[in-house]
Amino acid sequence: MAHYAIGDLQGCYTELTKLLQLIDFNHGTDTLWLVGDIVNRGTHSLECLQFCMQHESSVQIVLGNHDLHLLAVSYGFGKLKRRDTLMPILQHSELPKMRDWLRHQPLLRHTDTHVLVHAGILPEWNVNQAIDLSKEVQAALRENPQHYFANMYGNQPDRWSPDLQGDERLRLITNVFTRMRVLTQNQALDHDFKQEYADIPPTHFAWFDAPHRAHLSHKIVFGHWSALGYRNEKNVLALDTGALWGGQLTAVDLASEKIFQIQSESKADWRE
Fold first, then answer.
1. What residue stretches are annotated with the Calcineurin-like phosphoesterase domain (predicted)?
2. How far is the first Cα of the chain from the last one, in angstroms, to the nearest whole number?
């Protein structure tokens, strides 16, 4: 029995199938964590979503920003972008079923040793606090998705305060878990930075480089930042290795930390 984690799929179903064959994944005994962004930009978003639904007893996901974007558009909020590949889902006869399944997925999963999120956890949040905050968003998604998605988009507020309330509080929590890469020196989220680690300006730092992080009790497994690539240090495990952009799709055995990779079928250069 093995427990694996795999980086951002974003519709790369062919690579997923090959990677599962490489690790000899067994749905009867093994379990799999997916770091979110199951859909969008790749050519087989529908197949990736159907795979997760079909195997939910062995495959667990957290929501990423592209998954939330799909949900928002399906509820009539947000706009499709030029490179989105969501129409096969949006036009599918079982869209309501897929939408309901997806909106019931969490922003965070955890074991005694690992935490799975899409983008990261604020340095000042301990694991228990992060779990509780993720549940606030999860409740909003389940109880009133129309109101949640009507107010989800936006970059403000960009700094955490326990005094935040209502839609602003939910928006900040969502942005931390699904969009965060770097912070400014005054702990504000910078949503514009998407470059490589070496390009972080001196006025900023990666969220996992913050001193005295409160969640060091667990290893944080995340994706989202394809230009960061694979990283296993500082009690974090970064798994987005650019499968969508000509890189690799990466799996890790969470017990042994052995990595497995399948080269992307995309001809794009993920560094451009």
1. 5-143
2. 39
The model's pLDDT over 57-80, given as tens digits with 9 standing for 90+, comes to 999 999 999 999 999 999 999 899
Task: Give residue-wise pLDDT tens across range 115-157.
Answer: 999 999 999 999 999 999 999 999 999 999 999 999 999 999 9
Count CB-CB contacts under 10 A for residue 248: 20
64 and 72 Cβ atoms separated by less than 8 Å: no
pTM: 0.96
Residue in this structure with the two tokens 């990595």, named with its chain if needed: 259
Decide: 264 and 27 in contact? Cβ < 8 Å. Answer: no
Domains observed in the chain = 3-263 (3.60.21.10)
The CA dihedral of 178, 181, 182, 183, to the nearest 10 degrees, is 10
State phi, psi for 159 to the nearest 5 degrees.
-135, 140
CA distance 268 to 272: 8
